């Protein structure tokens, strides 16, 4: 059990009260994070509007180094989210609550090319998330990580963040409860980008010109960081069958690795986006 001192609790209560007083104000996200910082100092934060009908929208950011902003902001929100395990879990109905990347990532995700490009090279070795529902289609996610030092959170810090979950979600829901009415009028980067549904469709169509339906299913799972065993569980087939299909799809693309498949997918998606 994680025990906090009376001084720590007093600091949290004061800062959380300050955040509550700033609900519906522009500086609420900063006030909310200041409250969390009293117990778990965090370097980097992304607050995102997740919408099943379009690409995710960035609502707030903090602590993103300038040299990482292209990868973290531009590349992720334009296409990278398609392979993100958290974004996929939200699409599939992830319940409200607090999650660590370990809780939702496929078994081979931390060895994947996606993890190397969008996490490690962006200064993040992990993410924690608060997720709360606004409507059946729209959710808010609060992503927390150390993007400046790339230092993993300790088990104690993660336990504290878990303990804060009910209050953080209550404050965030109260602040963003009318976002559905306001988001379409907000300036960039808040204005909705309508291409999200098309990009998801593009992901599902990747490889349709050369792969069988089963090969495409396995291709999609490999891109998202599933191993042969995990893919087999997802598709209710044997790992040996997955490996055979993987060998065939690699041969059809004339490649020999998951990283090469990832590069081909990104090139294809760029071309698809231009044509679209």
UniProtKB/TrEMBL annotation:
Pfam families per the UniProt record, alphabetical: GerE (PF00196)
DNA-binding found in the keyword field: yes
HTH luxR-type domain boundaries: 204-269
Single GO BP term: regulation of DNA-templated transcription
GO MF annotations in UniProt: DNA binding
Keywords from the named record: DNA-binding, Transcription, Transcription regulation
Protein name (database record): HTH domain protein
Organism, as annotated: Halomonas elongata (strain ATCC 33173 / DSM 2581 / NBRC 15536 / NCIMB 2198 / 1H9)
């Amino acid at each position: 059990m994680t025990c906090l001192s009376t001084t720590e609790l007093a600091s949290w209560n004061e800062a959380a009260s300050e955040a509550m007083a700033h609900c519906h104000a522009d500086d609420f996200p900063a006030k909310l994070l200041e409250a969390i910082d009293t117990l778990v100092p965090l370097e980097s934060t992304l607050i995102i509007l997740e919408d099943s009908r379009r690409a995710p929208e960035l609502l707030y950011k903090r602590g993103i180094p300038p040299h990482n902003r292209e990868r973290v902001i531009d590349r992720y929100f334009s296409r990278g989210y398609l392979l993100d395990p958290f974004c996929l879990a939200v699409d599939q109905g992830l319940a409200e609550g607090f999650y660590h990347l370990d809780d939702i990532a496929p078994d081979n995700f931390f060895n994947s090319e996606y993890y190397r490009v969008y996490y490690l090279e962006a200064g993040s070795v992990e993410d924690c998330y608060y997720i709360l529902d606004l409507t059946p289609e729209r959710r808010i996610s609060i992503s927390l990580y150390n993007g400046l030092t790339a230092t993993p959170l300790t088990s104690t810090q993660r336990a504290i963040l878990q303990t804060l979950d009910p209050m953080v979600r209550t404050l965030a829901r109260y602040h963003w409860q009318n976002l559905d009415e306001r988001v379409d009028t907000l300036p960039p980067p808040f204005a909705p980008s309508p291409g999200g549904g098309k990009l998801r469709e593009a992901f599902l169509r990747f490889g349709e010109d050369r792969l069988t339906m089963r090969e495409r299913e396995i291709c999609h799972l490999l891109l998202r960081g599933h191993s042969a065993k995990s893919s087999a569980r997802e598709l209710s087939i044997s790992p040996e069958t997955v490996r055979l299909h993987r060998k065939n799809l690699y041969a059809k693309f004339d490649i020999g690795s998951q990283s090469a498949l990832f590069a081909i997918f990104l090139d294809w998606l760029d071309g698809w986006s231009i044509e679209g």
